[in-house]
Amino acid sequence: MPVRPGAVGAARVGALVAAAVALVLAVLLSLAVGARAIAPSAVFDALLHGGHSNAAEVVRGLRVPRTVVGVMVGAALALAGTVLQGITRNPIADPGILGISQGASVGVVLAIAYLGIHTLTGYVWFAFAGAGIAAVAVYAIAASGRGGATPVKLALGGAAINALLVSVTTAVLTTKASALDEFRFWQVGSLSGRDADLIGQIWPFLLVGVVLVLSVARGLDALALGEDVAKGLGQRVATVRIVGGLGATVLTGVGVAAAGPIAFIGLAVPHIARAVVGSDHRWLLPMAALIGPVMLLVSDTIGRIVFPPSEVPAGVMTALLGVPFLVTLVRRKAVPA
Amino acid sequence: MKEAGEVRRVRPAGYAVLRAGRARFLVHRRASVVAAVCAVLLAASCLAYLCVGETFIGPAEVFKVLTGQPSPDELVVGTLREPRMVVGLLVGAAFGIAGALIQTVARNPLASPDIIGISQGASAVTVAAMTFGLSSYAYLPYVSVAGGVVAAALVYLFAWRGGLHATRFVLIGIGFAIALRSVTTLFMTKGDYLVAQQAQIWMTGSLNGRGWAEARPLAWALLILLPCVAWAARAQRTVSLDDDTATALGVRLGRVRLGLVALGVVLASLATGAAGPVDFVALLAPQIARRVTRTAQIPLVTSALLGALIVVVGDLLARRLFSPTELPVGVLTAAVGAPYLIWLIIRSRAVRTSSARSGGTA
Fold first, then answer.
1. Which of A109, A181, A320, A331 to mutate: most B Cβ within 10 Å?
2. Is B305 part of a structural domain of the chain?
3. Which of A79, B14, B77, B347 is least surrounded, with the fewest CB atoms within 10 Å of its CB?
């Protein structure tokens, strides 16, 4: 990223401010747009002065929780993707492609089907466990053998784990028909119908994940130079990978438990952020945390108005917007095999 | 290689020459033996498939039914098990050949229709059709063939950049697979609960309730495609050479590759239409075939036989393991196939990629 040394700080601060402004706009859009369009002035009115008009009730009761959850999930997935790309030194790493989201899904399915757990605080732990096991498995598969964890091996390892986990899920859902009805709506990845209680349940986990991830920012920078250089700079490579991986797993678990497996945010956002502020993780991580929610909220808002009166879930919109992105990425870069 | 003058008379090691009139064929000895053994195993599995079930029926009775003699077990064997088995055979063979062709072109054992988005494309369109009330199985095959072909065409188109780079192809395929899967889940939420259940089972790949209605069109399609498969068996050899050699020999690589992939996609989509995307058969069968025969190319006949064997045995187990609950056969093939794929990745050396036509991009 060719940034002039003198202008570095100013340009990056400017970029962060611009991203923050974009986030505010996305939040406003998310509050104002939907089956019932509400003017921004009315939105502010509802937020600041209360009131009991229909518009105010819609904004406060439905859209505020949904938007806040969107901000949290978007930030969580974007951070997870950034860290995974840093740890694996691999441009196409992301929780979905690596099978980590699917791992969290299986945890949730098993909790719903066999333990009768139907609350988020109940199954978030299963989501963590599933995500963690899948993450370790994929990395172990890709890193073994010759050549280490190349992009292709990681993607294929993820595909294999995905397929295996999907077959487990299907086996459970065919034998436990009652679980399917609950699960099929959650599986799509959506922000609709998320209420304020959810926010109270997920913020502690989100905080833990963010702290873990930020603590390895310097280590990820060193790792980008190669393992040997990182060791020479006095970084404990293994510790950086484990702590970062743990952070990414927790964040993925939070995102998946709260909104279902939402694809491609973790893949696309780190690249956009890198294009704006360069590859220094101390800038990259905050930037990703700002851009992620913008992308998710905009996808969610578009999904609300594409096919009225029904909604296209955010998870589907991000996937549809993410494919062109991935294609461009793979075509532009010669991804080493 | 020998001198050009000697080539006509020299027989490569491990090959026998078959003469039929004036035509001569080189036959790989080991491959022929393996194919024969696979055929015997397949016959045995088919017999087992017809005998075993809710009620066990002796081989003697099964033969009576098969040869058209009157028998009290006509209903169970002839009407319930036999057509379902035939669908399994055809689907497995189609997946086996499709996998062999696509893996040959991608030069990568890991490129198979269920990883690069073809199966997901077929699924997405089919589940959409189910959701919008097209639940009769008569039309579904056509719908899913269309879906698979379109998905494959898109992946091919986007992966093409002055040549087909195997790695790019696989990565873009995986991306498409993910996106199409999410579209499928979207349609799952649109229909009512019963449609969702039907779609869920179909998506895993199941032979439940399949019969002559699915077997006939599939059999016809395979018959019609037989000459193409014969061509593919020859064309395969040139594609598995390195690019420079093949081009020097006057092979139009681009066209041959496209033809092979197209044939593979059509076969995979046909099979998906009949039984849903039975995961991993297309990956497993060619790989096992190649390892057992030790030939340079993936042998098509053995791949077809092994594919059929995997699906028939898999469905037999899926019917009986958790009876009375019947699992979709796809759950079983995935449970066996995914670990195998993982083992392949662990053992894989640096994947060979075609570098000759990358259009100057490093």
1. A331
2. yes
3. B347
Q: Does A187 touch chain B (CB under 8 A)?
A: yes
**What CATH number is associated with residue B121?**
1.10.3470.10
Output phi, psi for B350, to 5 deg: -55, 125
Range of the domain at B143: 83-349
Contacts of A170 in chain B (CB under 8 A): 200, 203-204, 328, 330-331
**Is residue B5 included in any domain, yes or no?**
no
A171 touches chain B (CB under 8 A): yes
CA atoms within a 13 Å half-sphere pointing along the CA-CB vector of A202: 33
Locus of tokens 């009131």: A51
Cβ separation A187–B188 shorter than 8 A: yes
Closest chain B CA to residue A327:
B172
Q: Does A193 touch chain B (CB under 8 A)?
A: no
Q: Do B182 and A92 touch (CB under 8 A)?
A: no
Dmax of chain A from CA atoms? 65
DSSP label of B107: T
For residue B62, is it left (φ>0), alpha (ψ between -120 and 50) or beta? Answer: alpha
> B362: burial class by Cβ within 10 Å (0-12, 13-18, 19+)?
exposed
**For the segment A46-92, what is each residue's pLDDT rounded down to a tens digit?**
777 777 777 777 777 778 888 999 999 999 999 999 999 888 877 77
Contact at CB, B168 and A335, closer than 8 angstroms: yes
Distances (CA, A) of A54 to A36, A66, A194: 10, 17, 19
Q: Determine the Cα angle at A21 with ends A20 and A26, to 5°.
A: 95
With CB atoms and an 8 Å threshold, state whether A188 touches B325: no
**Angle of CA points A9, A10, A13, to nearest 5°:** 85
B4 domain-assigned: no
Per-residue pLDDT of chain B (362 residues; tens, 9 = 90+): 444 444 455 667 777 777 777 776 677 788 888 899 999 999 999 999 999 888 888 888 888 888 888 888 888 888 888 999 999 999 999 999 999 998 888 777 767 787 788 888 988 888 888 888 766 666 777 888 889 999 999 988 888 877 667 778 877 888 888 888 888 888 887 777 777 777 877 777 888 878 888 888 888 888 998 899 888 888 887 777 777 777 777 777 778 888 888 899 989 988 888 888 887 898 889 988 888 888 778 889 999 999 999 999 999 998 888 777 788 888 888 888 888 878 877 776 544 433 333 332 32
Q: Which helix (H) or strand (E) holds B118?
A: helix B118-131
Contacts of B182 in chain A (CB under 8 A): 188-189, 263, 315-316, 319-320
Distance, CA of B136 to CA of B141 (rounded, Å)? 10
Closest residue, chain B, to A145 (C-alpha):
B346
Residue B283 in contact with residue B303, Cβ under 8 Å? no
A contact residues 229-268, partner B, Cβ 8 Å cutoff: 263-264
Domains held by chain B: number: 1
Classify residue A38 by its DSSP letter. Answer: -
- Partners of residue B338 in chain A, C-beta under 8 Å: 160-161, 163-164, 167
Cβ atoms B51, B57 nearer than 8 A: yes
Per CB-CB distance under 8 Å, the chain A contacts of B196 are 180-181, 184
Q: Taking CB atoms and an 8 Å limit, are B183 and A316 in contact across chains?
A: yes
Domain membership of residue B338 (yes or no) is yes
Which chain B residue lies closest to A177 (C-alpha atoms)?
B197
